[in-house]
Amino acid sequence: AQPGGAEPVPAQPMRDLVWGKLNFLHTTDTHGWHGGHLQEPQYSADWGDYVSFAEHMRKKADKDGVDLLLVDTGDRVEGNGLYDGSHPKGKYYYDIYREQDVDIICTGNHELYIASTADAEHQLTVPNFKENYVASNLDYIDPKSGERMPLAQRYRKFQTKNQKLDIVAFGFLFDFTGNANNTVVQPVRETVREQWFQDAIREEADVFVVIGHVGVRMPEFKTIFNAIRKQNPLTPILFFGGHVHIRDAISYDSRSFAVASGRYFETIGWMSVDGELARTALSQDDADAGFSFHRRYIDNNLLGLQHHTGLDAATFPTEHGRNVSAFITKAREALDLDYAFGCAPKTLWMSRSPYPGDNSIYSWLEKEVLPDVATNPDRNDMPRLVIVNTGAIRFDIFKGAFTRDTTYIVSPFLSAMTHIPDVPYRMARKVIELLNTAGKIMESAPMDNRFMATPEQLAIHESILYEAPVLSDSFLDAAQQKPLGGGSVVDGGRPRLTEGYTTRDDIGLDGDDTVHAPVNFYVVPNCVQAEVEFPSDGEPETVDLVFLDFIAPWVLMALRLLGGEYSGEDVQLYVEGTFTDLMAGWIEKNWPRHC
Ligand SMILES: O=c1ccn([C@@H]2O[C@H](COP(=O)(O)O)[C@@H](O)[C@H]2O)c(=O)[nH]1
């Protein structure tokens, strides 16, 4: 854990890991949080702690004669000062990340939004993980020669260390279309028809492992599952997904299992499979070959990691892990990530509190920030509608210091505020409604309105509310729980639970390694809007329609549906600088400097 970070949480009821013959640790959508969550004790372990953890877990696997593999399913970048806070971005991140021995690794959409990020992936992460990086449906275009080539090998065949199991592994990205023009993402339904893929699924394999920056309930995984299963009726197929930022698990059939392991390095996913894995022992008669699959969502809590290894503060950190933590500390210092722009007077939530509402980060934007930052000296007296997509905000703001790190945590994107001047108000006022309707403005998938909201909102469609989100016996009674630490923190004889994930997936309610008190999740709209400089009575004839450039395609489509013939050429810059810088500037001006 990092100096100055929150102390890890003791005395939590824990569920142990169930080991099998083949075991996995999974990270996804870490978005640069490799220094851990400094303000949240439940997730404050850092990448160095994970290095130590994996070393101990590999040793145990070796001792027991089983196998352990580490996988990572992309979106490692964008969303934390440790990556975004340097020039060029990722100055320290690439060297920190490579310290973990990841056995199978693939790309997320965030590695591809900006051409220079994709270049860095090609020049740094791919060579850092040479034999382990898999790019089944992703090509890179060399900037000098213009040559198009696979970003990395299309699939990986290897043998596990201890049992010599033959693994055939793929690494996919969902059918993403927002990539910069130096990469090409092939739709998954086309990839599975490629000859190389058809040959790969005919390789002799004990287990197929499909890792992907794909939600486990997204159609892309189903397409891959069907293709592999058609050719291999008996072989276990294991899926590791991501992108939608939630903990989730699903079984596609009795020999396949899929896990998604959350977001922001809050979670280290665990999957194990037991049963007769050697293909030579399989026969059509074995209904399920005695396969059993387990999953756990391990909180990235240092004491929890120690618990799972049976070690303590003195014995847990390995030399390698310690060095990685120390390197992160140096990088954070060099980037001055703890520099405070101001002090947040209260916590502002994305989805834990209702919108609109006093504690909603989006209401704060609408009421306080947008009217102040969406200004253009040439058009300041013009009434305007200012629209921001809720996906532009990536994390809650906690009461206390708002630092350089927080800036990138809350809003890492380079989006600018653009506008279309003098739009008839009768048309402009209806845009927000269209952007927020659940259906699609356009038929084709890339224009799905929900892509303007956060990935969590994409996955969860209804608010999940608890009557008294404090203590619940049903969580306490869950199987296999054991108190972590001395259990001294008790409330009426029961452990006082910290708030956190209480995951319900297709397997049940016992996925989380730590028993938490549940937290509410409120659905929020795709976009929010501020009305600025409106006349005190009556309606304006025309308004400036101001919006983040990221949502320009949706805004233009909405206007078109409303009868407005606008194109990209009508969209002009409204304010210099990124939305992130504007927000940080507002905080510096409006919140007290020190807490
Ligand atoms: O410039 C941008 C890029 C992305 N977004 C929002 O992020 C999600 C995608 O997040 P993942 O972590 O890749 O799942 C996208 O749907 C947008 O809501 C943005 O606002 N601006």
UniProtKB/TrEMBL annotation:
CDD domains, per the entry: MPP_YHR202W_N (cd07407)
SUPFAM superfamilies registered for this protein in UniProt: 5'-nucleotidase (syn. UDP-sugar hydrolase), C-terminal domain (SSF55816), Metallo-dependent phosphatases (SSF56300)
Gene3D superfamilies reported for this sequence: 3.60.21.10, 5'-Nucleotidase, C-terminal domain
Domain Putative 5'-nucleotidase C-terminal as annotated: residue spans: 347-556
Record key words, sorted: Signal
GO molecular function, one term: hydrolase activity
Any one GO biological process: nucleotide catabolic process
Gene Ontology, cellular component aspect: cytosol; extracellular region
Record flagged with keyword Signal: yes
One of the Pfam families matching this protein, by short name: Metallophos
Keyword Electron transport: no
Ranges of residues in domain Calcineurin-like phosphoesterase: 23-246
Classification via PANTHER family: 5'-NUCLEOTIDASE-RELATED, SER_THR PROTEIN PHOSPHATASE FAMILY (AFU_ORTHOLOGUE AFUA_3G04160)
Protein name as annotated: Metallo-dependent phosphatase-like protein
Species name: Chaetomidium leptoderma
